[in-house]
Each structure stands twice: as C-alpha cells, then as structure tokens.
C-alpha cells in the first residue's frame, strides 16, 4: 500500500470513528426522558445512592425536571430534538473530508474549533443554569476527547497534502 493510500485510509477510519460518536451523541438527545429513567434504575441497582449521594441527587433532580417538562411543558424538550438534529447535520458535513480530505480540511478545523468552544460554554453557562461543576467537567470532556481524532485527522491531511495531488492516468493518444 502506498503512503498516500495508507494516509487516506487512516484519515477515513478516524473520520468514521468521529462521525459515529457524533451521531450516537446526537441520537441520545432524542429519548432523554426514557434514558434518565433507565439510568436512575440502573444506578439504584448499583447502590449509587449509598456510595455517591451527590451524583444520585443530581440524577434524581434532572430526572424530576425532565419528567415535569415532559408532562407539563413538552415543547421545552423540542430544544433537545434540535440539539440532536444539529449533531446529525454536523456529522453529515464530515462526508466532505471523507471524500476529499485536502480540499475539505476546513470542516475538520471547524470541528476542532467547535470542540474548543465547548469548554467556555460549559464554564459560563453551567453556573448560570445551576449545573454542578463536576458535571460541567463531564461536558467539557466531550470537547477534549472530540478534538483528539480531529487533530490526528488534520495532521494526516497535512501529510497527504505534502505528498501532492494524486497522479492522474495519462489520456490515450488521439487516433
């Protein structure tokens, strides 16, 4: 396998990994109410209320809030539907670098900027919305872990770019 083919394959593998995580992250924003009920049951079965009361109190508070919103103000959850949709749309954008990485490196760089933006958003909006700092750290980890595959992809794209354009087959002589 040529260096060019190996780089392209590596870029595509990392991009697929990133897109799968982005889609899963987005898809989980649709069924929040049911997920939190399931999470609460699982944590109860694991005796989390006894061992991590702070985590338990937070999960219970969030579940109560979501149950109330779902029963009394379901339109509020429409915002999380749009959050999920945004994840899916952003994932589609990564088809560009999958198809032509050098030409579409800007999508990868945009993704890196978005990952970096998670940190200040969590630090500013978390306290305003009453989110515990330790939960904001979990939110920030999405940006920190998300930027890793994008950084690897960007480095590989730069190496691919340095190799130059793929050689084109010669045209057959005119008869």
TrEMBL record:
<keyword id="KW-1133">Transmembrane helix</keyword>
<keyword id="KW-0812">Transmembrane</keyword>
<feature type="transmembrane region" description="Helical">
    <location>
        <begin position="134"/>
        <end position="153"/>
    </location>
</feature>
<feature type="transmembrane region" description="Helical">
    <location>
        <begin position="107"/>
        <end position="128"/>
    </location>
</feature>
<feature type="transmembrane region" description="Helical">
    <location>
        <begin position="75"/>
        <end position="95"/>
    </location>
</feature>
<keyword id="KW-0472">Membrane</keyword>
<protein>
    <recommendedName>
        <fullName>Cytoplasmic membrane protein</fullName>
    </recommendedName>
</protein>
């Amino acid at each position: 396998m040529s260096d060019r083919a190996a780089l392209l394959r590596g870029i595509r593998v990392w991009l697929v990994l990133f897109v799968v995580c982005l889609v899963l992250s987005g898809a989980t924003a649709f069924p929040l109410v049911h997920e939190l009920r399931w999470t609460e049951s699982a944590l109860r079965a694991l005796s989390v209320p006894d061992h991590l009361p702070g985590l338990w109190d937070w999960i219970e508070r969030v579940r109560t809030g979501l149950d109330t919103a779902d029963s009394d103000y379901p339109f509020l959850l429409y915002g999380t539907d749009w959050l999920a949709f945004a994840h899916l749309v952003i994932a589609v954008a990564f088809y560009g670098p999958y198809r032509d990485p050098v030409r579409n490196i800007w999508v990868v760089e945009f993704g890196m900027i978005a990952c970096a933006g998670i940190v200040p958003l969590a630090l500013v909006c978390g306290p305003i919305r009453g989110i515990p700092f330790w939960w904001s750290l979990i939110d920030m980890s999405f940006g920190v872990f998300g930027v890793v595959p994008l950084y690897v992809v960007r480095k590989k794209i730069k190496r691919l770019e340095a190799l130059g354009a793929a050689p084109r087959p010669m045209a057959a002589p005119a008869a």
